[in-house]
Amino acid sequence: MSIGKIGVTSNDLFPIIKKFLYSDHDIFLREIVSNAVDATQKLKTLASSGEFKGEVGELRVSVSIDKEAKTITISDNGIGMTQEEIEKYINQIAFSGAEEFMDKYKDQANAIIGHFGLGFYSSFMVSDKVDIVTLSHKEGAEAVKWSCEGNPEYTLEKVEKADRGTDIVMHISEEEEAFLEESRIQELLNKYCKFLPVEIAFGKKKEWKDGKNVDTDEDNIINDTNPAWTKKPADLKEEDYSDFYRQLYPMGEDPLFHIHLNVDYPFNLTGILYFPKIKNSVEIQKNKIQLYCNQVFVTDSVEGIVPEFLTMLHGVIDSPDIPLNVSRSYLQSDGNVKKIASHISKKVADSLNDIFKNDRADFEMKWDDLRIFIQYGMLTEDKFFDRSKKFMLFKNTEGKYFTMEEYEAIIKENQTDKDSNIITLYATDVDAQYTYIEAAKAKGYDVLVMDSQLDNHLINHLEQKTPTTKYVRVDSDIIEKLIQKDEVKVSKLTEEQRNDLIPVFNSHLPSGKVNYIVAFESLGEEAQPLLITQSEFMRRMKDMAAMNAGMGFYGEMPDSFNLVVNSDHALIENILNDKDAKMGEKLAEVSAKLTPLFEEREQLDALKKDKKADEVPQEEKDKMAEVQKQISAVNAEKEELLKGYGKDNQLVKQLIDLALLANNMLKGAELAKFVKRSVDMIK
């Protein structure tokens, strides 16, 4: 037996390994099993080239636990190692000089294991001692045993070993004894080794017998050595892709469709990506794509290797060309990664376009589940936006689908305003906005349904990309103003009549965190007497503030609506006539008080004409302020009279409630009162 020191002079090596990789210390199993698989693959390569002429046999890696001995053993029947190879590959830490290695990498948390051939040393994260018992495939080789207790000293001795290959025996430390549980190892093997290309055996298959699970004589093979993504698309059927999806996500809902990646230039990349069903609630579950390197699981945090919007997809990506750091769990940012990410984005866009062209009817059926994914991509990546314009769909209130180009051609003639802007009308709730939709249709306009959580952001993005196209929600204004034409109808009410009606209607408008502005429009005798609209700009800002904390200013502002009074409607004329009949004398008395005040104000205005502010005598300023105060007091008196009249007018209340009801804004006690009042008015 010989005793030696590993080719690193500092005693800091093992503490650094444990410290730097502690956060994901369960990777030790992946590293050791991967090394065992490499050993079997190398033997297969040597045999195929004729360098190894012995019997290869059935290549396999075995994982076993001995709870009494507190060991985990990983065995392979691969190429094995000679004593010289152990000294070269295990003791000399990938040929790095001790001083250079420690100086360069001791402070880099993610730059030690793996990159420098140190995957084996991850075993010391969970072990007090590690043994290597190995017999080389080379003719005449002798078995040797290497042992180390987590410090630079090791022992190396000759031993007896019947079969070719290597056993890694890890003596698990007391604080890591959870890894001696069968369920824990099964979980890690399923996570990291599920698709390794060599069979991994862990214990025996179980069967239910006499009320309990018992071992059978059959080895429990935990992995699929030939998963779907390693096969050619031509060799796979639709059910093969469905079966593989269920293999990846046993509890998942069937996906919409898949894309098979198979690239060999300018880099190697294979994989299968699935489009999950994503509803309007934006059920975005990231980290569902699994990244592999030669069928070895690396990570499911793929934000560095695929564009942000593609993290919503499910599936597998496998590439030996993705640069990994030493722990194989973090991606390094470099040009190659960016090229791969760009290619994946292009491949996804091209595949979606092919699916759209080959079976548009099926694509349309799946659009409601697919659109958030495509919208997310359009919002976050310009190149994907440009590519997806070919297959991004609009759906109108009739349930018909159009590409962006098709839709513009349909609405351009009728929905172009006086400034040559194409106005795209849309609804976010077909039922709640039914009245407005019908009014638009009566004008010959088409209305889109845009009710996804990302539509508001997409609308702003589309307007930036195509400045001559504007998006206007169908209830944001009266129908005549949604698409401004040259003709403008003037309200037939006088200014005095409009001013009198404002407090009448204000008397019944809800109070609280909502502002209402009474406006008057000439909508025609057949249109509704009252409508409620909301400014497109303010509504958009508030909707976006709800999703973006940085826009809190708009989120804190009260909602503001317009109560649009149709000055052409007979019921409005009835209210005016009733107001004159009941309040005419009182209002005339109040108005009479205003006449001399207005005259006095005109005289004071005449005195300060052509004078600068500092040239007007203080006495005149004080007098003007007093006159204005008296005018305001009389106006307030008149407003109170009109509010009082409105408060007692059941028709005014009924019309306002009807307008609120049409917008789904009448609820609770007010809705109950409305129903009772309606019944009473019918009697």
Automatic annotation (TrEMBL):
SMART domains referenced in this protein's UniProt entry, alphabetically:
HATPase_c (SM00387)
Keyword check for Ligase, yes or no.
no
Keyword annotations of the record:
ATP-binding, Chaperone, Cytoplasm, Nucleotide-binding, Stress response
Q: Which CDD domains match?
A: HATPase_Hsp90-like
A GO molecular function held by the record: unfolded protein binding
- Pfam families (alphabetical): HATPase_c_3, HSP90
For the Histidine kinase/HSP90-like ATPase domain, which residue ranges apply?
A: 24-176
Binding residues for ATP: 31, 35, 76, 81, 96-97, 166, 328
Gene3D superfamilies according to UniProt: 3.30.230.80, 3.40.50.11260, Histidine kinase-like ATPase, C-terminal domain
Record's family?
Answer: Belongs to the heat shock protein 90 family.
Q: Please report the name of this protein according to its UniProt entry.
A: Chaperone protein HtpG
Q: Which gene encodes it?
A: htpG
